[in-house]
């Protein structure tokens, strides 16, 4: 009976699972094409799930025999994930209409992928962690191969599937070592056992798990798949990959390391430190030579994950707060940037080369201005939002005495500023080529909204920073 | 006791040997047959451990369904194994070297395997007494109560796999005529009898 009484804490997940199944039936039984209807209903379901997260209990609760946990941290990251999913789904719907793809399964897969992410965020056991990750991953592999008649898309799907399976294998192997040396998979009990008896075997298991997790957030040196998969996958799918799963995987990363493995901080801090520095460097230097905007954004997202991991390396409430602020603003900046990429269509055909942006300031000044805002923001130019996100992680690093990390971070963001500003230079100073088609209304609205947030964040940063603070505090009791 | 020990070594040696054969056999059909042998021996190991339900499940599901499907796919796909083996000699030494290093490391760690004393108390699911409840009952007691969340989550993972495979492979072919018996029977008076005169035609 107690299980049923507590089910309310998992209401968003239960609702989303039910909505996914109902929409699947709706799509299958409708005779005519249901892509648009199912799509908008799915957006509504994601928004409703976000509403359930907001109205749900703010305190901590575990249910399903301790397999599932909700707390302030989960609420914050779930809202970011659901928001990112809903926004990218809206962007995808106009793309589906433009490309005349008649497949309602797209929205269903997004719903189940998002459900997997929520389950990752709420995982309180290695087993529920893995199932959430797999639910999200499996839906993502299918989405990558969504345009099954094009070679690039299928190649990207296959690559993602094989490499993702290897990463899952590493993760599982690490989990089995951890389970073998501690005798439990529950996060609470792991924390208890590890506080007394941290053995070498657990450490090896932890390294395997870190490798698997680093793959999922595409942090270097496990980033190889990212540019290829991002380039090959259909653009709205790339937008989805670059944003929502990253938020959820980083949340899981933080919960895992700050929760059960908190007492092994000395061991994992070095690993995350290295991963973070490598990601920042590869994100900065790898993007310089790119000619495809999707590959550029792939390297940019590798770099961003490096900055987020700076916050985790610090292993303090300030660091986690910085990481959460970074993630939330990352969602806005990247949704905006991908809204621009999705508006890059010439004569009804999508283009994705950076040189196609030449002279955009003259052919469509609004689009050029918006992309300028996002690029400056990602480069970390004040007073745009991206500056604050970097400020908070570096501040935490400096406070914790990790000057090396902060200095490397600042240097790599200077390097990355080069390629962000190169895009702006191409838009404003190169001769215009063909002009773009009128972007879809939904894209324009999202573009306006995200650029307003990015541009005006400095006016009222307290709301986000305070809620990130409360969320981070949950993980560091006492 | 000695018979059990002998059976264990018999099953495990054959299982390891046939697992090696799965990846080294030249003919993919042979690989699948070796795989079936591996499953059977693994099932034997399960029975030795007193987990007869899992053993039977392995035989019924993996041998009966999965391996047979594998066999079908392998026969239909006509894979050229020679192409797949290209570069094998190149990668083999590196792969073996990494494998040996990893194995040595894992062996070194597990050699010093000590269970933390708290584990006995922290253990999630103490083993059910095999004399008191049957295998199926013991599994059912856990899966449908304590682990219902994981059970349902795996169901969703399988649902996504199904949606994905249908979406990626299903093609609606235009112009395919399907028989609709109800419509045929319900055709109404479109047939009329005509008297055709000899040598006259209609």
UniProtKB/TrEMBL annotation, chain B:
NDH-1 shuttles electrons from NADH, via FMN and iron-sulfur (Fe-S) centers, to quinones in the respiratory chain. Couples the redox reaction to proton translocation (for every two electrons transferred, four hydrogen ions are translocated across the cytoplasmic membrane), and thus conserves the redox energy in a proton gradient. PANTHER family: NADH-UBIQUINONE OXIDOREDUCTASE CHAIN 6. It is found in: Cell membrane. GO terms for molecular function: NADH dehydrogenase (ubiquinone) activity; quinone binding. It catalyses: a quinone + NADH + 5 H(+)(in) = a quinol + NAD(+) + 4 H(+)(out). Belongs to the complex I subunit 6 family. Keywords: Cell membrane, Membrane, NAD, Quinone, Transmembrane, Transmembrane helix. It comes from Novispirillum itersonii. This is NADH-quinone oxidoreductase subunit J. It is a multi-pass membrane protein. The chain crosses the membrane at residues 6-25, 32-51, 57-79, 91-116, 147-168. GO terms for cellular component: plasma membrane. It comes from the Bacteria. Its EC number is 7.1.1.-. It is an enzyme of class 7 (translocase).
